[in-house]
Amino acid sequence: MSKLRRQQNANTSNVVETKNLSDVKAKTGNLYESIAVVAKRANQINITLKEELHNKLEEFASHTDSLEEIHENKEQIEISKAYERMPNPALLATQEFMEDKIYYRKSEDDLFS
């Protein structure tokens, strides 16, 4: 089980909570920078999940599928449904950011501007 999967299973509440913008801004000193960090992490999570799903579904891929095989592949359907039930990557990224689980740093260009 991947690290990301264990983290998602540990957080079983898929409830969206509003965040205090002052708290989000306080993490980096700039609200837009905080949002950019969360967005980049959400993209990383999304790519990881997409690759993981693609690899699992690839196990079921057959280049000579008949119409009956396509409709009767219940394992493939269950895997797809499990990924649909997963929390949104943006919610996971926001939670990680607020819990200081994301490492980020300013680039050289940002330091001098």
Give an overview in words.
By secondary structure, the protein is mostly helical. The protein has one domain. The chain has helices at 3-10, 21-28, 31-58, 67-71, 74-84, 89-98, 108-111. The radius of gyration is 19 Å and the shape is elongated.
Total number of strands: 0
Question: How do the helices and strands follow one another from N- to C-terminus?
Answer: HHHHHHH
Hey, roughly how much beta strand do the residues contain? under 5%
Largest sheet: none
Q: How many separate domains?
A: 1
Stretches where pLDDT is under 50 for at least 5 consecutive residues are none
Rg result: 19 Å
The total of helices stands at: 7
Q: Give the CA-CA distance, first to last residue.
A: 43 Å
Instruction: Report the helical percentage.
Output: 55-70%
Q: What is the general shape?
A: elongated
Provide the residue-averaged pLDDT.
81
Which structural class is indicated by helix and strand composition?
mainly alpha
Topology:
Blueprint: H1 3-10, H2 21-28, H3 31-58, H4 67-71, H5 74-84, H6 89-98, H7 108-111
Helix pairs in contact: 2-3, 3-5, 3-6
Briefly summarize what is shown.
Helix content is 65%, strand content 0%. It has 113 residues and is an all-alpha fold.
